[in-house]
Amino acid sequence: MEEKQLNKLKGKEVTYLVQNEKYNLTTNQIITRATYQNGKYHFDTTALNKQVKKINEKHATLDKPFKFRTHSGAEITTTANGSYGWKISEKKAGNSLTKAIIDGRQEVDGEHDIEGKGYNTAGLGYNVTSNNGIGDTYAEVSLADQRAYFYKDGKCVLETDIVSGTNNEGNKTPKGVWYIMYQQSPSVLRGQNDDGSSYASKVNYWSPFTLTGCGFHDASWRHNWSKTAYLSDGSHGCINMQPSVAGQAFHDLKQNEPVIIY
Questions:
Q1: Which pLDDT value is given to residue 1?
Q2: Where is the active site (predicted)?
Q3: Which of 5, 135, 224, 238 has its CA 20 to 30 A from that of 246?
Q4: What is the pLDDT of residues 178-191, one digit of tens each?
Q5: What is the pLDDT of residues 102-122, one digit of tens each?
Q6: What pLDDT does residue 8 have?
Q7: Secondary structure E strands in the chain
C-alpha cells in the first residue's frame, strides 16, 4: 500500500510561479524523502531549499539593500538591515508544492508562500515592482539633512524638518528600509533615558516603524529644532516632528508603507 502511494509521486512536475517568472520543478527537486502512513504522506523537502535559495536570490527583497532615488534625484543604496520586504519561505513552499503533487495540480503561485519579519511576518511588497520594489508611496528620511519627505503615488505631499535620534550608539535612528507597523492617536511612549530613569511621554500621533520603538511622532516638549540638534540633543531614536505638521504626516502615512532612512 505504502509503495503504491509513493509511486504516485514519481515523475511529477510542478510550475512554481514567482512574480512573473515560472520555475519548473520535478518531484526530485522538491522531495528528499517521503513516507506514507495511516492514510497520510510525510515529506522531507530539504531538496527544495536549494531551489528556494536561488529564487530568493533573484526575486526576494527581505534583508537586501534597495537602490533608491532620493528627493534630490540622487540614487543611493540603502543598508540591508531594515524590515521591509519579502522572501519565499522554505517551509511554506515545501507544503504548497508537495500538496500540489498529491492533488495533481500543475501550477503553484509563490505569492502564498512569502514571509517577512518584524511586526508583520506575512511579507510586504511582493506585487510591488516599481522603484526597485519600494513603490511610489513611502516616507523618506534624510538623517544628514534632518528632513522628511512623504510621497503618495510618486508625488511629494509633505516635506518637513525633523529631529532624529541622538548621534550615539544607543540612540541614533537606524538606517534601512522599514515599514509603518501600526498607528495610534493619541498614545503614550514609554522607555528609559540614558541615565536609567523611565519616561512616559504623551503624543497625539504615533507611527512606529521598528520593534525597538522608533517611529514618527509629535514632540511638543522639544525646543531645539535646529539642523544640528540630533548631534547631541536628539531623540531616543524616534523621528520628532513639530506638532503643527505631525497630524498631516500621520494621515499621509499608512500601515505597512515603507520608510526609507539614510
A1: 64
A2: 217, 238
A3: 135
A4: 999 999 999 999 98
A5: 999 999 999 999 999 999 999
A6: 86
A7: 13-18, 21-26, 33-37, 40-44, 67-69, 75-77, 87-88, 107-109, 114-115, 138-142, 147-152, 155-161, 176-179, 187-192, 198-203, 206-208, 215-218, 239-241, 258-261
Residues 184 and 121 in one domain: no
* Candidate list 217, 223, 236, 251, residue with the active-site label: 217
The answer to whether 217 is a known catalytic residue is yes
Q: What nine digits make up the cell of 226?
A: 535646529
| CATH number for 101 | 3.10.20.800
Asked if residue 110 and residue 145 are part of one domain, the reply reads no
Average pLDDT over residues 41-61: 97
Same domain, 143 and 214: yes
**Euclidean distance between CA atoms 189 and 192, whole angstroms:** 10
Measured CA angle at 55 (ends 52, 58), to 5 deg: 150
User: What range defines the domain where residue 219 resides?
Assistant: 136-261
Query: Does 117 share its domain with 155?
Result: no
Number of domains in the chain: 2
- Tell me how far apart the alpha carbons of residues 87 and 90 are, in angstroms, rounded to a whole number: 9
User: Residue 174 has which C-alpha cell?
Assistant: 537606524
Nearest to 95 by CA among 53, 21, 43: 43
Residues 190, 93: one domain? no
How far apart CA 96 and CA 114 sit, in angstroms, is 11
**Same structural domain for residues 108 and 146?**
no
Among the candidates 75, 97, 127, a domain finishes at 127
The answer to pTM > 0.70 is yes
Going by C-beta distance under 8 Å and a sequence separation of 6 or more, which residues neighbour residue 259? 84, 138, 139, 141, 177, 178, 179, 180, 209
